[in-house]
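[step 3/7] fold_predict: job queued, chain A
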Amino acid sequence: MRVLNITVTLGLGVAIGIWSASLMLKHQLNSSSVHNGPWRTLLTAGSTDAGMYQRSGIAIGGLLALSKQETLYFTAFEDSSGNLLQEQCNYRVLGNDPDARWWSLTAYAADHYLPQNDDNALSIAKTTVERDDGGHFEIMVSADPQPKNWISSRAAGDYSLTLRLYNPSSRVYKAPAAVKLPDILREDCQ
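[step 4/7] structure written:
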């Protein structure tokens, strides 16, 4: 009986420890992020200034993240109205080229990996996006194929979009909350 009590107590202690660390990790990442519309960035990503919880979050959700000097990552888990990004909904991402040498926009499933589908349409970049005459782009994010500028959300569930800015200008680093980033507009849901 005593062994059972010790085992249950240890199991409960480990479970509470994991749960509280998870809550602290989410709180730290959210509170230390800079918000810009639906986008958020962690300025300490790839920096020695990152604390223990920030480094843990980056290790979990930012596989192979580059250093802060090379890339700034903006991630959106919600659309511009504050609704979670969901596979069954269609989204229109509207904007102009961000102020960076190069950029890409990629969909990630809730497990922080690419959605497991064979659509070959999980990312769009500065060199592949089609623009109108004014330099504006419109990217569709949906589970159903689109004729141009399409990112597939099929098999993503609740997902995120990550906008990578490679070699962003100094203005982006100085005021990431004020930089003009694309809007994410929800269209319809099935």
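[step 5/7] annotate
The first helix runs from residue 2 to 31.
The first strand starts at residue 34 and ends at 36.
exit 0
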